[in-house]
Predict the structure of DUF1876 domain-containing protein.
Amino acid sequence: MHAHQWKVSLNLSESGPHTVAEAVLHTDAGTELRHEGRARRHPTDRDVPEIGDELAVSRALMGLAQDLFEATVADVEQNTGAEAAISL
């Protein structure tokens, strides 16, 4: 059995009502994928920073998952020379 370790790091920044999260995937083969998610608090909402963090991170992770899937499809097609027949 060969074990692999991939790491995802999450970096958050806030500026006023805006929150930005960057999700970065690092594979043990050296591949790196990045995706950014954003959230904005409506002016009439209570100031609860954790909600903006959660929303921005969830958007970043969903985008990262989609980017990884698209990279996988491209890799399959490049290695088989045929259209990939995979789905989520």
Observations:
- DSSP finds one helix and three strands in the chain.
